[in-house]
Design brief:
Pseudouridine synthase, nine-stranded mixed β-sheet, four-stranded antiparallel β-sheet, alpha+beta, globular, about 350 residues, 3 domains
């Protein structure tokens, strides 16, 4: 998928990201810390060169618990060094977790808590990324781009290429499931593939907003997300437009499904979303066949980059910034690197 640049007028730094796992460091900042009391055991882990699922599988096997009973707030990159909290079910003992010795996994902290860690229980993720072999004036260029992305409405909240599989065909396979042309036996795989289709349609919607000049514009019938609050449908774009510019609200895009909040009926926003579906040979009712796999929701169209910082290192630059959970650092770095 050919994604446009928001900062097309600012030159990128080039270079290479992830030359080693250590060049891509992520630290999860949780929504809350364990209380120190309760039946569940929370552990902060550091993993290297593993997906979160791989790390969970190793830890669960070592503690003789089921993978599905291990809680995580979010999935972290494989080709990286990442830190995140997980929860382990009773009757797991704190000492048993502290004693774990596993390849490419370190146990950093252990404490008790009263409930399982759930998806989305993340305040933010802090990224520390090193880009090697950059162009001249890379520090100046990176700072200029990040300064713009730190202001509302922020960077496009793209789904990254990892969402679409090694061969890039996950969305097409998801569409086949929605169309009733083949349902894999593995329900987890089916959910992943349909989610990839939803992600591709979201990206297509966001491309259209940027191409048509509506990236930072509130349209009639728009579903907005209040920062720190819930979603609502605008009643007056002339009122909510300045709120978008001020960073009080963000536009939301469709993650199509039966329970997705719809824009105002017969609005230009609804027509634009229908056009995205039509281009894929789908209609809104198509997702009813997979409602148990993909309920549907709305996703913030943009992400404001928090606390950006850039320094020079021996053979490149180091960039640090904070993003909300569920967003991709690569969406920011593609703007920086071009």
């Amino acid at each position: 998928m050919d994604l446009p640049y928001l900062t097309v007028d600012l030159p990128g730094i080039g270079g290479a990201l992830r030359t080693t796992p250590e060049d891509f460091f992520v630290n999860e900042e949780p929504a809350y810390l364990p209380s120190g009391e309760g039946e569940h055991v929370f552990a902060k882990i550091e993993k290297r060169g593993l997906t979160t699922s791989m790390a969970i599988e190793r830890i669960a096997k070592a503690l003789n618990v089921k993978d599905r009973d291990v809680g995580v707030a979010g999935m972290k990159d494989r080709h990286a060094v990442t830190r995140q909290w997980i929860s382990l079910p009773p009757p797991t003992q704190v000492d048993a977790v502290k004693a774990l010795v596993l390849e490419d996994i370190a146990i950093l902290e252990v404490s008790k808590h009263g409930n399982k860690l759930r998806t989305g229980h993340v305040r933010s993720n802090r990224f520390q990324l090193r880009v090697r072999g950059v162009k001249e004036q890379a520090v100046h260029r990176a700072r200029a781009i990040l300064e713009r992305l730190a202001k509302p409405p922020g960077a496009p909240n793209w789904y990254g290429e990892q969402r679409f599989g090694r061969d890039g065909d996950n969305a097409a396979r998801g569409r086949a499931i929605v169309m009733g042309e083949g349902f894999p036996r593995d329900r987890k795989l089916a959910r992943l593939l349909v989610s990839s289709l939803q992600s591709e349609l979201f990206n297509q919607w966001l491309i259209a907003r940027m191409t048509d000049g509506y990236y930072a514009t509130v349209l009639e019938g728009e579903v907005l997300h209040k920062i720190g609050g819930g979603m609502f449908t605008t009643e007056d774009p002339t009122v909510d437009g300045p709120r978008l510019t001020a960073g009080e609200v963000v536009l939301t895009g469709p993650m199509f499904g039966t329970t997705m909040r719809q824009p105002a009926e017969n609005s230009i926003v609804a027509a634009r979303e229908d056009a995205i579906l039509a281009a894929a040979g789908l209609e809104r009712g198509a997702f009813a066949t997979v409602r148990a796999l993909a309920e549907g929701t709305r996703r913030d169209a943009t992400i404001t980059v928090g606390e950006p910082h850039v320094i020079e290192i021996d053979d490149g630059i180091e960039v640090t910034f904070t993003l909300p959970g569920g967003t991709y650092a690569t969406a920011v770095m593609r703007e920086v690197m071009k």
